[in-house]
Design a protein that fits this description.
Layout: E1 12-18, H1 24-37, E2 41-51, E3 57-59, H2 71-77, H3 80-87, E4 102-110, H4 113-122, H5 135-145
Antiparallel strand pairs: 1-4, 2-3, 2-4
Amino acid sequence: MAGGLGDVLGPVQVLLIGLDEPGSERMLAAELQDLHSQDAVRALDVLRVRRDPDGGLRRLDPPDPEEFPGAVVEALLVSDRADEAMAEGTWSLADRLPRGAAAAIILLEHRWAIPLREAAAGTRAEVFGDAWVHPSDLAAARRAVGSFGQ
């Protein structure tokens, strides 16, 4: 796995990217290669899946079995443990995949945030929460208040 999960980790984001459009697999492979060469963000693992017409989730061949075997993503999102967590009301990103569609579920580590987190820990600052803002939510907020950050 890229970088290994035993290292000091930055915040980890999970992305679900559809793979049914022509060229999407090549685009994803190229982007993962670019990320691998950077230190700000890195791919930790990738799991390719397809949602069957009956709703079942099926694992597809990994894009690079040595670099991204998909095992960590699978353990997080589509294992029996994840099914138990869903029964307790926890969301599952894999459930957002439409029936019949294929996707890559990618773990991205945001390494740029490690120094920020360490600085906060050095001052005994406490992180009370974090969240990702969906692009459509940000676009709606920008329309509501006018453009910023341009």
